[in-house]
């Protein structure tokens, strides 16, 4: 599990270490310099500089391409290894963008290391203030110091284009809001120049965070220079996991500067002296929890793996109410996702003609009613039209019935108790009652905007995409449900921690992929139905696991090329087997 620490948490962790004389900045700067030396030192034997971008063979466009973990560095690292690392950095040029605080201090000390290794290093001070000791060390090492006020932005752009590497050390966890002038104007112009320069743009390393991102919420309120790599200190920051900011961070490298080891939220009490509950951490909203990312190694512990004592009913039955005669495909895709994620059984409820189509693809599906341990409601079912009332081949009526069981409106429902559910597409327009946390809403940004509008918020799709965590948490608070917002980075929030998953290649953005995800999650919820009802934070964790498995299945089925939604479902068994084996 990757855990992000808010800026307040980072400060709290730093305080005692700094008081004890731990050389945090020296460690950070040394590690940062090592990373830069490694990247720049990977130049091939002909040492093509200036303008050569470390590890980027010409003609290979890597920016924005996602690895299986959603970060763009894998292919680049491979290319670098193939190019061979010579480690000679003499004569290579580095441009440092230096802000007034400790982030600038890290950058100046790192610059001093680079200069001592023979690099030509120029620091542009964006402010009248700069970290004094860092600046002194940088000068002593032979670094060149310019101030933005003296040389102006166009000449920084020229320097940038002549450099092998740029270090963005304008602001770190001390940042508040969008970058202010003059740093803001500098970064805006550099970001535009980068777009124009394409592959000629130097390798860009963000120091701790790309300056200008929202450290704690991942919003991007103003200009940001996209990084190829972010070297972050002590702990990940939420903005490095959350969209849209995470798209600007490149490959994220976490440097251990001596913070106490913590894995997960469990260790926090010991560090912060917290006595009032698991999520009540110093400096954070107690209700909000942390931002995390589920990793492949976490899946085995959460996956409902059968034991020799299980039979099909103990393993969990998924009930799917999806598709209509107009949109039968969604029923096929949702049931396929559910079956191939490995439940005890999948029941399909819907029009007979659609059930027949489902059986053609998945003869394992049972097309009669009966007890289920989770519901998948709504894929391929149209939104309810308030004027015309329920329609869709009776699917809306069936969904309303299942929702009544989920929300507890029916005290003696056919399923016999509290029921987890995936609520997708058309079913999102059928919510009439407050939901439990074990109901998981799975909208994309447009659907979430509509849902929030219905709850009285003035928000559109673009606003949701600009502040995904905020709106996901708002929807959770308003509905009670766990909310999973689909996208290139999928954000999940319920009671407690939030999750930001970047597992899928962009090819996954194809019709029906979401239906498959709904089915996979339905199986997870059915397999652990008693647990999700007992632990109200578990549904979000399982939802993140479903997103991870779905994303990896999409990557496997895609193999770098187009992928059809049904192929994502077909890749699920191999992906699950791999994750359970590792
Ligand atoms: N965690 C760790 O282990 C370690 C952390 N370390 C490093 O310390 C960094 C934190 O340093 P920090 O606290 O000095 O704050 P920092 O980010 O440099 O910025 C503050 C300055 O920026 C300014 N400023 C703020 N917002 C702005 C805006 N929108 N636009 C423009 N300017 C803005 C603000 O000005 P003010 O608002 O006060 O006028 C203030 O002067 C951290 O990110 C890491 O790199 C390592 O050294 C040791 C190990
Ligand atoms: N750019 C992207 N990169 C990776 N995955 C994406 C991207 N855009 C969307 N996705 C994923 O593709 C799926 C699309 O789901 P959805 O929008 O519900 O489509 P449908 O309703 O047609 O099934 C979701 O799992 C979403 O997270
Ligand atoms: K920075």
From TrEMBL:
Catalysed reaction, written as an equation: (6S)-NADHX + ADP = AMP + phosphate + NADH + H(+); (6S)-NADPHX + ADP = AMP + phosphate + NADPH + H(+); (6R)-NADPHX = (6S)-NADPHX; (6R)-NADHX = (6S)-NADHX
PROSITE patterns in alphabetical order: YJEF_C_2 (PS01050), YJEF_C_3 (PS51383), YJEF_N (PS51385)
Sites where the protein binds (6S)-NADPHX: 102-106, 172-178, 208, 330, 380, 444, 515
Binding site for AMP: 486-490, 514
Domain YjeF C-terminal: 295-579
Region (Disordered): 44-76
UniProt cofactor note: Binds 1 potassium ion per subunit.
Residues the record lists as binding K(+): 103, 168, 211
EC nos: 4.2.1.136, 5.1.99.6
Cofactor field: Mg(2+); K(+)
Domain (YjeF N-terminal) ranges: 10-265
Alphabetically ordered keywords of this record: ATP-binding, Isomerase, Lyase, Metal-binding, Multifunctional enzyme, NAD, NADP, Nucleotide-binding, Potassium
Matches recorded under Pfam families: Carb_kinase, YjeF_N
Family per similarity comment: Belongs to the NnrD/CARKD family.
Entry function: Catalyzes the epimerization of the S- and R-forms of NAD(P)HX, a damaged form of NAD(P)H that is a result of enzymatic or heat-dependent hydration. This is a prerequisite for the S-specific NAD(P)H-hydrate dehydratase to allow the repair of both epimers of NAD(P)HX.
Subunit details: Homotetramer.
Protein known as: Bifunctional NAD(P)H-hydrate repair enzyme
């Amino acid at each position: 599990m990757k855990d992000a620490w808010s800026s307040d948490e980072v400060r709290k962790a730093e305080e005692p270490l700094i008081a004890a004389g731990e050389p945090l900045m020296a460690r950070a700067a040394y590690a940062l310099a090592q990373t830069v030396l490694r990247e720049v030192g990977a130049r091939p034997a002909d040492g093509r500089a200036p303008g050569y971008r470390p590890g980027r063979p010409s003609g290979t466009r890597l920016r924005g391409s996602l690895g299986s973990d959603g970060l763009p560095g894998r292919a680049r690292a491979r290319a670098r290894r193939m190019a061979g690392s010579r480690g000679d950095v003499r004569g290579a040029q580095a441009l440092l963008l230096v802000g007034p605080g400790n982030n600038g201090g890290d950058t100046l000390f790192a610059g001093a290391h680079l200069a001592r290794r023979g690099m030509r290093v120029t620091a542009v001070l964006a402010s009248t203030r700069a970290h004094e000791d860092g600046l002194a060390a940088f000068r002593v090492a032979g670094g060149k110091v310019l101030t933005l006020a003296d040389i102006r932005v166009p000449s920084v752009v020229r320097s940038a284009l002549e450099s092998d590497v740029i270090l963005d050390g304008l602001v770190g966890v001390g940042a508040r809001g969008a970058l202010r002038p003059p740093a803001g104007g500098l970064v805006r112009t550099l970001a535009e120049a980068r777009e124009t320069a394409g592959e000629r743009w130097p390798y860009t390393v963000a120091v701790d965070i790309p300056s200008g991102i929202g450290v704690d919420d991942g919003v991007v309120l103003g200009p940001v220079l996209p990084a190829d790599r972010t070297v972050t200190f002590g702990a990940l920051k939420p903005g490095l996991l959350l969209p849209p900011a995470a798209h600007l961070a490149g490959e994220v490298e976490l440097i251990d500067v001596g913070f106490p080891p913590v894995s997960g939220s469990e260790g926090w009490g010991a560090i912060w002296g917290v006595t009032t509950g698991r999520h009540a951490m110093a400096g954070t909203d107690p209700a909000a929890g942390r931002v995390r990312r589920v990793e492949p190694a976490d899946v085995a512990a959460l996956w409902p793996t059968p034991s020799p004592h299980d039979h099909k009913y103990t393993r969990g039955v998924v009930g799917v109410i999806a598709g209509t005669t107009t949109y039968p495909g969604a029923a096929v895709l949702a049931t396929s996702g559910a079956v191939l994620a490995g439940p005890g059984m999948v029941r399909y409820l819907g029009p007979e003609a659609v059930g027949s189509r489902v059986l053609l693809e998945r003869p394992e599906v049972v097309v009669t009613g009966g007890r289920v341990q989770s519901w998948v409601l709504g894929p391929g079912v149209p939104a309810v039209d308030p004027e015309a009332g329920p329609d869709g081949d009776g699917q809306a009526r069936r969904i309303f019935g299942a929702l009544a069981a989920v929300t507890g409106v029916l005290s003696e429902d056919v399923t016999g108790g509290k029921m987890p559910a995936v609520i997708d597409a058309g079913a999102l327009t059928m919510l009439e009652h407050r939901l439990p946390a074990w109901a998981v809403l799975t909208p994309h940004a447009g659907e979430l905007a509509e849902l929030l509008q219905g709850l009285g918020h003035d928000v559109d799709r673009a606003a949701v995409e600009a502040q995904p965590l905020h709106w996901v948490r708002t929807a959770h608070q308003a509905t009670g449900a766990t909310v999973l917002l689909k996208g290139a980075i999928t954000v999940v929030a319920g009671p407690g921690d939030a999750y930001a998953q970047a597992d899928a290649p962009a090819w996954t953005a194809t019709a029906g992929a979401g239906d498959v995800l709904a089915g996979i999650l339905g199986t997870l919820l059915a397999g652990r139905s008693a647990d999700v009802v007992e632990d109200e934070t578990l549904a979000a964790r399982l939802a993140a696991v479903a997103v991870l498995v779905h994303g990896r299945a999409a990557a496997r089925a895609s193999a770098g090329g187009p992928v059809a939604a049904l192929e994502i479902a077909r890749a699920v068994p191999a992906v699950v087997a791999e994750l359970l084996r590792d």
